Amino acid sequence: MESARMCAVGSGAVDIPRLPAGDSAASVGPWRFSASRSRILASACSHPDQHCQPTDDYDSLCQLCRYYKILQFPHMPDMVFPDNILSLEYSKGGRIQFTALDAMKCIDITRLPIQVACAEEWQESRSGTDQKIKPFDWTFITDYKGTLIDGLELTSTLEKINMELLKKREKILFYEDISLYEDELHDHGVASCSVKIRVMPSCWFVLLRYFLRVDDVLSQINDTRMFYELDSPHILVEHTSRNGDLASLKLPPHVVTDPNELAQRLPITSQSLNKIVLPTSR
Ligand SMILES: [Zn+2]
């Protein structure tokens, strides 16, 4: 099985509702949608000796040690949801999936960290007693755009998503809002990555968002929107990255704390239009 993670540039927002754990699924037209929501990644090694042995055999490691080995992060975000998955499967082949691990693989941990007053304090709080953490991207900025599986791939297009179609009053057949990871930046803001889906009889819409707010300093929102209209030969995919200096924007508090409001006020720093052409036969 071939899979391709799509990475790019960006960041996003918070106050994600904590929906109960569980699985849900629905079939609508040629699509099968499924979602899982589960526990947070443990913060300590679960090996009986509390220390997994270094090994190349990923399966023998506990989940936390496996994540550290794969990602090589000095520290994980406060909350990682390793079993939260949103999956969209096409009847003629191909699947799109959203997972925390793939989102975190798109974090460039060696990127120079944002230099703000709280950065040092944040890193010290996590460095433990005898270990010094090298500077790293403590805001966990990801440009993840979803994982394409079984031959699906992005190609460029000039076609934009018609947002007016989403304003039509239609019954919602399937809805999920799934958190992939989140960090409170040592009480200096929030960094979160989450994905939402809304499925109607005539179309579906996905919003994958990385949201960053460093209080009184800056905000970044990286959005990937996917849109499919029934009987269309493709899915439209739009990536937008927004970035703004909160000190100079002087926005009211209710805007700063609401990612949707904030997204309207932040300047766009990059944007791209793509499509995923769907297979016509198995
Ligand atoms: Zn372990």
Which key terms come to mind for this protein?
globular, 14% helix, binds zinc ion, 14 strands, mainly beta, six-stranded antiparallel β-sheet, 282 residues
Small molecules (ligands, ions, cofactors) in the structure: zinc ion
| pLDDT averaged over residues | 86
Head-to-tail CA distance between termini: 15 Å
What count of structural domains? Answer: 1
Strand content: 35-45%
Strand order of the largest sheet: 4-9-10-11-12-13-14-8
**Main sheet characteristics:** 8 strands, antiparallel
Shape summary: globular
- Radius of gyration, in Å, reads 19 Å
Let me know the number of strands: 14
Q: SSE order in H/E notation?
A: EEEHEEEHHEEEEEEEHHHE
Question: Structural class, from secondary structure content?
Answer: mainly beta
Characterise the protein shown here.
This protein is mainly β and 282 residues long. The chain has one domain (3-41, 76-277). Helix content is 14%, strand content 37%. The chain has helices at 63-71, 100-105, 117-126, 246-249, 253-256, 259-265; strands at 3-5, 22-28, 31-37, 79-80, 85-90, 95-99, 147-149, 154-156, 174-183, 189-199, 203-214, 218-229, 234-245, 268-277. The strands form 2 sheets. It has an 8-stranded antiparallel beta sheet. A 6-stranded antiparallel beta sheet has the order 1-7-6-5-3-2. A hairpin with a 3-residue loop joins β11 (203-214) and β12. The longest helix has 10 residues, at 117-126. Mean pLDDT is 86; it is low at 7-18. Bound molecules: zinc ion (ZN). Zinc ion binds at residues 45-47, 52, 61-62, 64-65.
